[in-house]
Design goal:
There is one protein chain. The protein is of the alpha+beta class and 137 residues long. The protein has a single domain, classed as Roll (Nuclear Transport Factor 2, Chain: A). The chain has a four-stranded antiparallel beta sheet, with helices on one face. A hairpin with a 2-residue loop joins strand 3 and strand 4. The termini are far apart.
């Protein structure tokens, strides 16, 4: 199953949206394999990163596919003009099948900077990680 239609080479070889400026990890070696269905995010943090990148790239299909069926909305609307600027993973507990990931995600709408601070809940179900829900901090 693929949630990605055509990726321009320019995007594939650019820094992945989930990475900080200065990091050299390109999209093709980071979140693209998950978005394209080549592989599944191996950890909750990897899924968190790939979902942030999907927001940044406007990939609603991937966001819905990685949303746990029990909490998945029917559709997803992006805020027009919202540019995602920076993801910071603050905290994550790992090694268990249910994981919380605390993060901030900075975006810009017009000239206004927004910072989302959330603790997200993830579960592993059938060998894949899913986003369940989150608490805005
Ligand atoms: Zn990435």
């Amino acid at each position: 199953m693929t949630w990605l239609a055509d990726v321009p080479q320019m995007i594939a070889s650019s820094r992945c949206p989930c990475r900080k400026r200065g990091e050299t990890v390109i999209y093709a070696n980071c979140c693209m394999p998950f978005h394209s269905g080549v592989s599944a995010a191996p950890t909750a943090v990897a899924l968190m990163r790939s979902r942030y990148a999907a927001f940044a790239l406007g990939n609603a299909a991937y966001l819905l596919a990685t949303w746990h069926p029990t909490t998945r909305p029917h559709q997803l609307a992006f805020t027009p003009g919202q540019q995602w600027l920076l993801l910071r993973i603050l905290n994550a507990n790992s090694e268990v099948a249910a994981v919380t990931v605390e993060f901030t995600a900075r975006s810009r709408i017009g000239s206004t900077i927004h910072t989302l601070h959330e603790i997200s809940n993830f579960v592993q179900d059938g060998g894949r990680w899913f986003y369940v829900d989150g608490q805005i901090m």
